[in-house]
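Deliverable D5.2: sample structural annotation.
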Amino acid sequence: MTTLTLTKPVSTGVAQPVRTTAILIVLLTAQLMAVLDANIVNVAGATIRTDLHASGAGLQLIIAGFTIAYAVSLITGARVGGIAGHRRVFLAGLAAFTAASLACGLADTSTGLIAFRFVQGVGAAFMIPQVFSLIQRHFTGPARARAIGRYAAVIAGGVVAGQVLGGVIVDADLWGTGWRPVFWINVPIGAILLVAGARVLPRDEAAEPRRLDVGGLTTLMATVLALVVPLVFGHDQGWPLWSWLSLAGSVALFTAFMAVQRRVQAPLMPARVVRAPGMLAALGAMFLMMTAYSGYLFALALHLQTALHYSPMRAGLTFVPMAVAFAAASLNWRRLPEHWHGRMSAVGLLVAGLSIGLIGLALHLHASPGALFFIVQVPFGLGSGVAYSPLVARALAAVAPADAADASGLVTTSVQLAQVVGLAVIGSLYLALAAGHGSNLAAPATLVVDGAIALAAAACAWLVPRATSTHA
């Protein structure tokens, strides 16, 4: 059997805590930038449209272009990282993301801004999969679990922080620059991370040569594009025929992708990764959980700003109790008794699903958020927090370090697609109900459906084995 030469975890010793902490700070700060960027622009949309005289379709592409390019390119970024080296590809993706952020802020036409947003998305798609891969390769045991917990906390906090920060920046109109600083904020952070990353990230050692599965990449990118584009634009255009044909086409393209994978020697997604104990059940639970989570944030933010006329900043601050609870649970779930860990994700998602339903009830009883609304956000955040990190840990536990790139690409792509599906499906449901029955009914009814999705995630999490053979 051929032995792969892998980068060794950081050696033990006095300097280890400093080095591993520095590695994690670089990786998670980059992750935070990507999460912020995906959310911060939503708040600035109206100002961007006025300033650049963008059409409705143009504004959609400005906001969604990042997400489309990111979702379509994630698997490619993960595989290229496994071939060319995770450190090298992380830094290249970070450089592209940072340069595109500067260009976005300087854009003077909507066409230019759309193009740079797509470049941002591709840069993020090459950067972010390396975060999981580098954690998988250089953190082991409890250190890896803590790193994944902090990763989850960054995602939860970044979503809320993006909405709040976007509102603050646009309202401040710094030096008369309006919306442009929502992009420029990435530039100094990215420059610092490039210097720090070049110094602290471990260099990749030579690994077994791997070929790029061009056929698999092409069919998978086409599959994701056919799925994401109608989900992003379908509702605003009244779900025209092309959107349904595209969704149906994504199924046919995925079938073609699976056929290609069976015929190549070096498949894009090796069967051993997909068949790793607990992987499919964990992926299903994460997909449904993130669909419910992103749908909840989007639909409720829409309700607060359109029906209740909250400012973007006030709407973002409404989610702070949930985000704080999510982060606290993500960082501290390992402190709970170890015999609880096996079913923690299922129980957490059960609590989260019931909490979403109670939040809907609170909005039904009182038009504006009251005490019950804010109180129930806490168990929602706690339940989600104790579910996400263990799910990621279990999904990766049985994957060998040699397959870290493929596994991280699979996990990150599933999570990103789930966020797109949540925004499109739950957001469209809210808008359709609001148009037909009014916002007072739309918000509670939408949250009931969203809670049911979280309960389905709990059922999937129950199927994840309590213990798996691990390569930690």
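Annotation notes: The two ends are 21 Å apart (CA to CA). The domain at 16-207 is CATH 1.20.1250.20 (Growth Hormone; Chain: A;).
The annotation will be released with the project's public dataset once the embargo ends.
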